Amino acid sequence: MTATSTTTPEAGPTALHSPVIDWFDQHARDLPWRRPEAGAWGVMVSEFMLQQTPVNRVLPVYEEWLARWPRPADLAAEAPGEAVRAWGRLGYPRRALRLHGAAAAIAERHGGDVPKDHHQLLALPGVGEYTAAAVASFAYGQRHAVLDTNVRRVFARAVSGTQYPPNATTAAERKLARTLLPQDDTTASRWAAATMELGALVCTARTPSCGGCPIADLCAWRGAGSPAHEGPPRRGQTYAGTDRQVRGKLLAVLRESHRPVERAVLDAVWHDPEQRGRALTGLLTDGLVERLPDGRYRLPGTV
Length: 303
Hints:
The chain has 303 residues and is mostly helical. Helices cover 53% and strands 1% of the residues. β1 and β2 form a beta hairpin. The radius of gyration is 22 Å and the shape is globular.
């Protein structure tokens, strides 16, 4: 077996199922969106929030969000700017607008209940293939390949024998995920959650804990001697000094104010007028900020 081949264990893909799911049964974190009372809406909220954001940052915002908006219709009834305000410092705030749009569509098209059908989930604003599969699997126990970064890394190492998956999800990865998917719905949904947790806690990006991995003996990457990544350099995302940081500072001012803000107040948050103007223009274009006729600024739809 080479580090570049894509194969399943000699015993077949089912050899991975039991050890991973058994490990999950013993080690799964008690997260609020995994509890029965979370429902499909709680699962959907968590999936929007967890994109590119660690669990410890999501937890307090998630709890506050569900306490304020326990159903999609509750969020849909508010201005989209209130969703942006409640999003706080989770980052990538366009997710808040997309979640608000999804809630409005759920209230309008589905009687306020998150749909079960995968195609109906995909038709919601801001819901892509991953989120639709995750909600269908985790909330409704359906059989779908759920491919987030953690799952893709587990499959890359355990099956394909490479340290990291490609930068973007490929057709080959989707095919592999379908090959590995258990046949019955219950086991498939459990497998989806278990592989995600394994990538988050054990098969981590920088320092995998192979000694605690339930499939270490079946891992193609480990069996090949854990070869180093041969693809393009993997660069971490920078934040300090970027337009993202400036956008965050501008949004922070607007989140903290419950009345429209003068341009001079926004100008005070960043020293570079060109970068500050570019960041503000981007926020306006993205619909995260509105400019009133009198020249003041506010979160969209807020008073």
